[in-house]
Design brief:
By secondary structure, the chain is α/β, with parallel strands linked by helices. It has helices at residues 2-40, 59-70, 82-94, 110-124, 152-176, 196-216, 244-257, 269-277, 279-292, 295-300, and strands at 50-54, 74-79, 100-104, 129-132, 179-183, 221-227, 261-264.
Length: 301
């Protein structure tokens, strides 16, 4: 066994490098051609199709609802705040959605997730797109959390809230050969000092849906969205951020094209490249910036 392990340690790295050098050039050419094709590719017509959106009462979820409404989709809007949801539903109807239902639910509760999928199916009889958008922020240093168990709610909503809804929706999405749109965050792919638990919950989403993409194969399309600095109830300050309207339009356009991934705004992807190529340098810079920031800014970061 030791000899086998040693041989693998010696032989596998150079073999893997040779294989990578052989397949990388044609892969990059095909990827580039696919990128060009993507700009002119067929975009799904969602008029009359059914879209279920969680966290639809405000922010990105609200604007996603309006984007689908303009395309004539029928909507099932899910959120905890029924009063806000009522206003979103009214606007969506004005924008062109032929049928909109509201479902008050908490995605962190498995029974609520089963209920909103059941109610949607009873009303519409089908499900074509599931948008897992619901999420809550968490900004604090881990060591300064007042009660560590309170952080469970972040993972329950941001991660399990997507798992539960997906679990109950899968049979209907398979039947329609539908799509799942997952709203993660740049914090899930990038170092997030002061938002470590939030970032971890979003990183878990990325890992989950990359695995589910393999499990589902071509039966269900999955678009993983990584928003960067987008204006919402979770953001504040004077830094330049993208509007929720622009972000939502990019998300729905991407979902209708059938994209695997979307980073919005696209320049945020440069940060991921730095993380891949020189993670130690990036970590040092972030640590220096974070440690030199005033105490009150750290708490508000």
């Amino acid at each position: 066994m030791d000899m086998t392990r040693k041989l693998m340690n010696i032989l596998l790295p150079p073999i893997a490098l040779i294989v990578l050098l052989l397949i990388l050039p044609p892969y990059l050419v095909l990827k580039f051609l696919g990128l060009i094709k993507g700009f002119t590719a067929y975009s799904e017509d969602v008029a009359g199709k059914v879209v279920l959106i969680t966290g639809a009462s405000s922010g990105i979820g609200e604007q996603i609802a309006y984007q689908y409404a303009r395309r004539g989709a029928r909507l099932a809007l899910v959120a905890r705040r029924e009063d806000r949801l009522r206003g979103v539903a009214s606007e969506a109807r004005k924008m062109g959605s032929p049928d909109v239902i509201m479902i008050r639910a908490d995605v962190s509760k498995v029974e609520d997730c089963k209920r909103f999928v059941d109610e949607e199916i009873r009303h519409f009889g089908q499900l074509d797109h599931l948008v897992n958008n619901a999420g809550i922020p968490c900004v604090c240093l881990l060591e300064e959390a007042p009660n560590i168990s309170d952080l469970n709610s972040v993972v329950d909503t941001n991660f399990w809230g997507s798992v539960y809804g997906t679990y109950f929706a899968v049979p209907y999405l398979r039947k329609s050969q539908g799509k799942i749109i997952v709203i993660s965050s740049a914090a899930g792919r990038f170092h997030s000092p002061g938002a470590s638990i939030y970032g971890a919950s979003k990183a878990a989403l990325i890992s989950l849906y990359e695995s589910l993409r393999i499990e589902f194969g071509s039966d269900i399309g999955i678009t993983i969205v990584t928003p960067g600095l987008v204006k919402s109830e979770m953001t504040s300050g004077d830094i330049p951020i993208e509007s929720t309207e622009d972000c939502a339009k990019a998300i729905v356009d991407s979902a209708c094209r059938g994209d695997r991934d979307l980073v919005e705004p696209s320049w945020v992807g440069i940060l991921f490249l730095f993380k891949l190529l020189c993670p130690e340098v990036l970590e040092w810079c972030l640590h220096w910036l974070f440690s030199s920031a005033p105490r009150n800014l750290k708490k508000a970061a």
